[in-house]
Amino acid sequence: MHGVFRMPGIALALYVAPALARGRVHARSGIGGRDFDRRTDGWGRWSAIVCYALLSAALTFVF
């Protein structure tokens, strides 16, 4: 049962790593999604990256 949640956690970590390097992350915002860029919305970018990193860690190690 642990493998069911571990694979999405790893996939999410593989999304977060390039988002840190690129400086842009796509996150849910309202009905659709939104791109948060380093130059225009740093606070939104970091909050999305932290949320995704915590979700990835929880899926990989807790569930």
Low-confidence stretches: none
Average pLDDT works out at 89
Largest sheet: 2 strands, antiparallel
Widest sheet: strand ordering: 1-2
- In whole angstroms, the N-to-C terminal distance is 9 Å
Structural class by SSE content: alpha+beta
The helicity comes to 55-70%
Which range does the strand content fall in?
A: 15-25%
How many β-strand runs? Answer: 2
Order of helices and strands: HEEH
What is the radius of gyration? 12 Å
**Global geometry:** elongated
Number of helices: 2
What does this structure look like?
The chain has a two-stranded antiparallel sheet with strand order 1-2. The mean pLDDT is 89. The longest helix has 21 residues, at 2-22. It is built from 2 helices and 2 strands; from the N terminus they run αββα. 67% of the residues lie in helices and 19% in strands. α1 (2-22) runs antiparallel to α2. It has 63 residues and is of the alpha+beta class. β1 and β2 (32-37) form a beta hairpin. It has helices at residues 2-22, 42-62; strands spanning 24-29, 32-37. The N and C termini lie close together (9 Å).
Q: What is the strand and helix layout of this fold?
A:
Elements: H1 2-22, E1 24-29, E2 32-37, H2 42-62
Antiparallel strand pairs: 1-2
Summarize the model shown:
By secondary structure, the chain is α+β, with helices and mostly antiparallel strands.
Task: Give keywords.
single chain; 2 helices; alpha+beta; 2 strands; 63 residues; two-stranded antiparallel sheet
